[in-house]
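1st attempt posting a full record on here, be nice pls
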Amino acid sequence: MADKEWERRPEVRRGQLGEWAGMAAAAGQEARVAAARRRVASVRLTDEERRVGFDELAEQFAVGRLDEDELHRRVELVQEAVTHRDLQVAFAGLPVPSLYVPQAKQPGRWRWAAFVGAVWLALPFFLTGLVFLVFGKEIAAAIFGLPAIAWVLVTWRWASAPKRQARRR
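the predicted structure (as tokens):
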């Protein structure tokens, strides 16, 4: 039954699948933010977190979401806040402060694990090349050793790429 309805309404397939995927991703992000807020609701604020709260309110004032009286009222709420739950009251009706937005995942160490695997994979070929070199077979040594060295260098460059890109920014 659902397949027949799907065939009768092709506009649903074309236009709404991307929209649904976007909505699902946004819902997942909102759920992560809500979970982060619940986890730290009873944790006391640090001075740095309070400063971030002031900065966020100043930014909301700068873009025009708050008037001056509302800004002063909310700044007082941030000053009096003891826990994150108290801080969340000061941001009611405003976008979520950056304190509760999950940090983007850092490039994992899996790239370096893959690099170590590449080294272990290249090691027998390199050692075979060394054996050929010792016995005077330079051509055979080059056939075995040089690709192994190139393989290790390419995977090292690949594994260190996120770190190099972060330095450029």
